[in-house]
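Annual report, structural modelling task.

Input specification for the pyridoxal-5'-phosphate complex:
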Amino acid sequence: LARRWRDARPAVHGLHLDSAACSRQSFAAIDAASLHARREAEVGGYVAAQAAEPALAAGRAAVGALTGMTADDVVFTTGASHALDLLLSAWPDERRVIACVPGEFGPNLAVMAANGFEVVLLPVDSLGRVVVEDLAGQLVADAPSLVHLAVVPSHRGIVQPLRDIADTCHEYGVPLVLDAAQGLGHIDCAVAADGVYATSRKWLAGPRGVGVLAVRPDRAASLRPRLPPPHWVTDIPVLRRVELGEANIAARVGFSVAVAEYMAYGPASLRARLADAGRLTRTVLSDLPGWRVVEPGDSPTAITTLAPTRGADVEQVRTELIARHAIVTTVAGPDRAPFELATPVLRVSPQVDVTADELTTFARALSSLSPHTSPARRV
Ligand SMILES: *Cc1c(COP(=O)(O)O)cnc(C)c1O
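The model returned the following structure:
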């Protein structure tokens, strides 16, 4: 699996440990997008778009399968944040109260506020996972308009107990919307939520600038999209209306090919292998002087975060890892989870093809940069 994944894409420059920001695309996805742009030049952009419709329908169907919905329940967006904005701006309730975990993604909080939603916080454990036993009580005492949850957050490699949360929300009749930007292609997201949205470029390894929004039909029918005005589009299903604007069709075609490849590898195998990659990463990094692994070693994600214990400047470390070693990681700062994360962490997120040797190379590079390690280690 790892070999196939690696051989399917261009050779990497250095070390890519940044799939939670943007995975590396395959030749097939890159070629499909580029071929579509070529077709636009040959036959016309709108003619090419029509010809691409079966490919896009296959992309929607694959996303439907991964979210427990159907092709008709899925629309393309330009990304995850865009999907959330489309959904919340069309949300019908007058009473706009949204329940989130304290680790809610900062930019999502901005989208919620911009759409007039008041945020209430869900009960969580020390790692930020919902305490399901306490969730029911909260839903009974003060039901929000919806529960919103990142299935895997941006700033920590943990997984929310999705199935139990979905069951509880269902039992108490509270809609559940999942931010699967870090989840789709990474963990099982087909848990009968009312809405699921995600982004192309992370664990599905599609191009940038594409996202998806899946909404259950009954919920979709109740939405009131802000644009276009309803009387312009009376004959189009509600969800389809939000997809009407201008779009980079080539990128959507590339995404559809990436998801098709993903399905062909087998979602279960990829998920298992990503969990292995996370375990391996945490094992290799567990005793690194100056850094603490935040997640439990066996957390079933490929995201590992490192908190500096001896004052390393995480921003500078990331920059130097790129400049000196061509190793790509992410700084996750407090803006990612303003209610939960006080200081920045270094996020390491390999794909299925990572090797122990590569992680050891990374560990050595990181040690060589850490300011307070012993001189012998700085060579
Ligand atoms: C990346 C990310 C987003 C935003 O995705 P975009 O496609 O950049 O809009 C939202 N939520 C989480 C948890 C993310 O990691």
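The pocket of pyridoxal-5'-phosphate is lined by residues 79-81, 105, 108, 150, 153-154, 179, 181-182, 199, 211 (CB under 6 Å).
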